[in-house]
Amino acid sequence: MRIACLGWGSLIWKPGVLPVDAHWRRDGPDLPIDFARESDGGELATVICSTAPMSRVMWSLLRTDSMACARELLRQREKIPSSQPRSIGGVMRGVAADPRLAYAETIALWARAQGLDGVVWTALPPRFAGENGRIPGVAQALQYLQTLSEDRRRHAELYVRATPRFVATALREALEQQLGWLPDASAAPLLRARQGAPRPGCSRRRSPVAGGRLPR
Questions:
Q1: Which of 15, 45, 114, 162 has the fewest CB atoms within 10 Å distance of its CB?
Q2: Largest CA distance in the chain
Q3: 126: number of CA atoms within 13 Å, CB side?
Q4: Residues 8-29: tens digit of each pLDDT
């Protein structure tokens, strides 16, 4: 099976346990991506966000032929509790995309055009001030980032600088103009250094994928 994972943030420079191919490709589906999820490290992580402009995201083949394994490894990498299966999106050839999963049909149609058997992606919602689904405004996001402790603010800055340029939003423009957080290729290695060695894994056993399959 040809199984891919979509990426638009830290997965690209810090895949962890995820068995990505040698490189990330730039011709993924168009999805609305923004810095809209308050994370444990302090950064506003990039997520699918309904109010954001469309960005052509990246993708990589995974070195596994099991959709169940692909989903499980992405869940482990994202540190998502197993009780939240819908936080990992997935489509697979032959079964209709789950209508409850945002942009699943868009991803399924793109995957069919690429000749892929399956695709997984992070489907965490925006979150701000501890409230899932809440999207911070530009002023709110700027105020939040400027009130972080020095170490957490530095982490948030590196995250923004390392995020691919295709994430071009009003918030990113404000971060560049007001805080000077411009894209910087040297930011990704600094962030990788903060990550411990990956340890988890999954079996190679095949099992059905939740979230739907690709149209025939």
A1: 114
A2: 51
A3: 17
A4: 999 999 999 999 987 899 999 9
Residues in the chain: 216
d(CA 123, CA 64): 20
Report the 10 Å Cβ neighbour count for 114.
17
Rounded to an integer, what distance in angstroms lies between the CA atom of residue 80 and that of residue 62? 19
What type of residue sits at position 95?
A: V
* Per-domain boundaries in the chain: 3-192
Q: How far is CA 137 from CA 44, 141, 206, in A?
A: 12, 6, 42
Q: What is the Cα–Cα distance from 29 to 103, expressed in whole angstroms? A: 10
Q: What distance in Å separates the CA atoms of residue 176 and residue 172, rounded to the nearest whole number? A: 6
Full 3-state SS string of the chain: CCEEEEECCHHHHCCCCCCECCCCECCCCEEEEEEEEECCCCCEEEEECCCCCEEECEEEEECCCCHHHHHHHHHHHHCCCCCCHHHEEEEECCCCECCCCCCHHHHHHHHHHHCCCEEEEECCCCEECCEECCCCCHHHHHHHHHCCCHHHHHHHHHHHHHCCCCCCCHHHHHHHHHHCCCCCCCHHHHHHCCCCCCCCCCCCCCCCCCCECCCC
Which band of pLDDT confidence, cut at 50, 70 and 90, is reported for residue 208?
A: very low
Distance CA 71, CA 68 (A): 5
- Reading the block at residue 151, the tokens are 């170490």
